Amino acid sequence: MLRITPYIQELLNPTPLKPARKPKGPVVIWNLIRRCNLMCKHCYSISVDTDFPGELSTDKIYTVMDDLKAFGVPVLILSGGEPLMHKDIYTISQRAKDMGFYVALSTNGTLINADNIQQIADMGYDYVGISLDGIGKTHDQFRRQEGAFDASLEAVRLCRQNNIKIGLRFTLTQDNQEQFPKMLELLETEEIDKFYLSHLNYGGRGNKNRKDDVYHQMTRQAMEKLFETCLNTLRAGKTREFVTGNNDADGVFLLHWAKKHFPEQAAHLQAKLEQWGGNSSGVNIANIDNLGTVHPDTFWWNYDLGNVQDRPFSEIWQDTSDPLMAGLKQNPRPLKGRCASCKYLKICGGNTRVRAYQVTGDAWNEDPGCYLSDEEVT
Ligand SMILES: C[S@@+](CC[C@H](N)C(=O)[O-])C[C@H]1O[C@@H](n2cnc3c(N)ncnc32)[C@H](O)[C@@H]1O
Ligand code: SF4
User: Fold this and answer.
1) 178 C-alpha vs ligand 1 centroid, how far in Å?
2) pLDDT tens string 203-257
3) Which atom of ligand 1 is nearest to 82's Cα?
4) So what family is this one in (predicted)?
C-alpha cells in the first residue's frame, strides 16, 4: 500500500529523513467470514451468499487475537466476505478495540443502515472502508446487485453523519476506468476522508476475469489524475488521504511524475520512497482466511502457510522453511526478468508476486501488472 498524500506533501514541504519504524508484527487482514450478500465479478475470496463450513469459532478467534497481540500485530482489518454478516462481528470488534488494536472494518456497505449505524459508531472503529466501484449502474453491474450503489452511498452518508472515519475503495478495471474522475468528484461532494485506489489483483474471480484488467496506459492516466487531485487537495488546505494498493510500481511512477513537476525535490522523494520499500506481502502484511489458514496476503488464497487451529500465527509467520515465505522475506527478493534488473527495485520491492505466479506459474517472474515503460525502469 502506498500513501500518496504524505509523499506529495514532501514535495511541497520536505522534512528530514527519519530512521525507519519497524513494526514487530504485520498488519493482519482477517477474513472472518466468507459468506457475502454480493457476488462481485473480481472478488478474490470468491464469496457468495452461503455458509462455508469449518470457519473459526468466535472462541478460537479470541485465542488467535491474544497471540497476535503478544506478537506485536498493530492493526486488524476485519474483512470477509461481508464482515457485517458475521453473527459476532460486534463482540469481536469490541474485544479487538479493548485490546488496543487499531481496528478497521472492510465492508461493501450495503448492510449499514439506520438500524445498526449507532452500534457501528459505538464500536469506535478507527476506520471503515466502503467499496464503491463506480457510480450507479456501473457499480451495480460490477457488484452484480441492483441497488448496491444506492445502499453503499447511504452507508457512506450515515457513517459521515456519525463521525466515523471512512474511505472509498475503488478497484480499477476496464469496466469502470472511465468513471474514475467521477469517483474523485464524489469524494469531494460527500466530503469523504480517504480514497483507496485498488489495482486489480489476480486472485479468485479477479484471476478468472483478469482479461478485464486495465491496459497499462489507462493505469498511467488514472495515476496522474490521482496525483494531481492529491496535489490540488493539499494546496487547498484539505486533509483528505489518497492511497493505492496492489501495484507498487505506483511509487516509481510517482517519482517520475515528481521529476517532471518538482525536479528540485526528486532526490528527496526518492530517498523517502526507498525507505518505504514497496511490496511487503509476507513481511508487513499478512492474511488469515475464514478457515484460519494463513497466507502471505489476501490474494494468495491458493497458497497455504499453515492453519491457526494447528499452530499459532506467530509461529507460522516466522517459519521460513516455506519457499515462498523465504523468498518474500529475502531482501532483495529472488526476482527474474525485468523486475530483477529494475533500477528502482529499492522503491517497489518487486511489486505483486501473485500476478507473476498466476500468469506464468513462477512467483519470481516479472510482474505483468507493472505499467512502467522499459525506459522508466532502466
Ligand atoms: C474481499 S472484499 C471484503 C469486504 C467487503 N465485502 C467489500 O467488498 O468491501 C475486500 C476488498 O477487496 C477488494 N477486492 C476483491 N477482489 C479484488 C481483486 N481481485 N483485486 C483487487 N481488489 C479486490 C474489494 O473490492 C474490497 O474493496
Ligand atoms: S468483493 Fe466483497 S462484496 Fe464483493 S463478493 Fe467479495 S466479499 Fe462480497
Assistant:
1) 20
2) 999 999 998 888 999 999 999 999 999 999 999 999 999 999 999 999 999 999 9
3) 6
4) Belongs to the radical SAM superfamily.
Chain center to CA of 56: 23
Q: Is 375 a domain residue?
A: no
Interacting residues of 124 by C-beta distance below 8 A, sequence separation 6+ = 97, 103
Which protein residue has the closest C-alpha to ligand 2 atom 4?
Answer: 40
Provide the CATH number for the domain around residue 74: 3.20.20.70
Q: Give the pLDDT mean for 175-188.
A: 97
Please name which ligand lies nearest the alpha carbon of 82. 1
Residue 367, in any domain of the structure: no
343 within some domain: no
The single residue listed with the C-alpha cell 484539505 is: 238
The number of domains in the chain is 1
- 18 falls within a domain: yes
* C-alpha cell belonging to residue 76: 486488524
- Whether 266 is in the pocket of ligand 2, judged by its Cβ within 6 Å, is no
The ligand 1 site (C-beta within 6 Å) comprises: 36, 42-45, 79-80, 82, 106-108, 131, 169, 171, 198, 200-201, 203, 206, 246
Quick check: 67 pLDDT over 90?
Answer: yes
Question: Could you tell me if the CB of 179 is within 6 A of ligand 2?
Answer: no
Q: Over 90: is that where the pLDDT of 21 sits?
A: no
How far, in whole angstroms, is CA 238 from its chain's centroid? 23
pLDDT the model gives residue 23 = 84
Q: Give DSSP secondary structure letters for 47-106.
A: --SS--TTPPPHHHHHHHHHHHHHHT--EEEEESS-GGGSTTHHHHHHHHHHTT-EEEEE
- What residue's CA is closest to ligand 2, atom 6? 43
Residue 131 CA: which ligand is closest? 1
Give me the DSSP letters along 261-307. H-GGGHHHHHHHHHHH-S--BTTTEEEE-TTSEEESSTT-TTS--EE
**Which ligand 2 atom is the nearest neighbour of the CA of 42?**
1
Quick one: which ligand is closest to 169's CA? 1
Which grid coordinates are listed for 300?
A: 494468495
* Angle, CA 356 vertex, CA 353 and CA 357 arms, to 5°: 85
**Can you tell me the distance from the alpha carbon of 221 to that of 211, in angstroms, rounded to the nearest whole number?**
19
Query: Is 90 exceeded by the pLDDT of residue 275?
Result: yes
What is the pLDDT at residue 212?
87
